[in-house]
Amino acid sequence: MGVFSFFILVFVVFGPSLWGFKRYLARKKEVLNLFREDAHNGLSTEIENYVIPGDGFKRSNFTERRFRRRYFFDLLEIFDHQCANCKRTKLKLEIDHFFIPKSKGGNMMMKHKKGYWVCNGILLCRRCNANKADQGIKEFFEEEVLAGILKKNTQMSDLINGLDPKKFQEPRSLSSDH
Ligand SMILES: [Zn+2]
User: In angstroms, what is the span from residue 74 Cα to ligand 1's centroid?
Assistant: First the structure.
């Protein structure tokens, strides 16, 4: 086989997948840009903006079980092993569904229709979690506390989207619907 036909063969075999890979990278970059923009303007709290898979409403579905442990360690690190509300460290911490409660179909991680991931979990101590119950985040958290939580939550979303949480885009506000 001559050198020329060898290159033709390589092109025929690997060309399409290289092209596909290039498209994949371009799409990924586009999605991350959309994420950065939305994270800065406030991530959506509307369930309609998220893709919840068929079993997403079930408690402890496959995705949740698979990622729960890793996810919990990341949360501990980003939230400095503290309750996001009262800042106590000595209490057992639980994952609270932040933007969208479990009862409304929220998962710990949710895929936005634009393609990026949003972290829907924060850490609360058992007492704060029980006190919060079904209250909305604006009702329960004090303004300053909420701003701090949004920062850390955005860092978690950065991590899930494969970005460096230390170089995150600071959120400007709670949420605008997009
Ligand atoms: Zn607490």
Answer: 18
